[in-house]
Description:
The protein is α/β, with parallel strands linked by helices. The chain contains eight helices and nine strands.
Amino acid sequence: MNRSTKSAAVVLGVLMLAAGSAYCEEIKVGGGGASIASVFAPIKPHFEKATGDTLVILQATSKDGLIDLVKGKVDITTGAVPLEAMLAGAEKDGVKIDSSTLVSQEIARNRTVVLVHPSNKVSNLSKEQLRGIFSGKTSNWKEVGGDDKDIIIVWSTATSGQNNMFKQMVMEGDQVTRDVMDSTNYAKIKESIASTPEAIGIDPFSLTDATVKLLDSPPMSEPIIAVTVGKPAGKVQRLLGYIKGEGNKYVKQ
């Protein structure tokens, strides 16, 4: 290959690289921890490899993700709560959003599960038993077939979506006791249960691993939605299409 041919090949390679880079885009995703852990974190490496796009995850809360969306800080936001709840949360923070400018769609299901320490010999709890435990009326594991140990409830006020679903589906009007081990987020709930033999708590199925034990309990699930300003197009539609297509096998639900 002579010098001119080599130069032409180099120029062609540079042009091809530039052309390829032009089609690779950055997509910013905001929203709540349960939906991020269930959908966007698991699909991220596979989506980036398949498309060349970069998926930037900016985890917050569902309502903060919605606020970031309308302020243009993210391209798409997600949550495991109804859009109406996101809007109400934003308005409570002083941000009133015109819902007619938004488009939401279900992209997966968020499954909330009951977790205990791996050493706990209890394997299943009924709705009535859970209500007794989380209301504080049942305070010792021996009352539900476990060891003679006080029950420690791990709870977080920051996980409002799953808390509300648990109250509606399990508590049925009874209040969750205030005598709880406070936690800050979904991940910390799991960590606290993993390090406390007497503990019990609820968390997204997507966060479960060998450090905790998943109980057989009444099913609890709710839609995970994706929200955009206007109809999704371009890179955002490419992301949503991947989630519903090839990427669906990576979603944890």
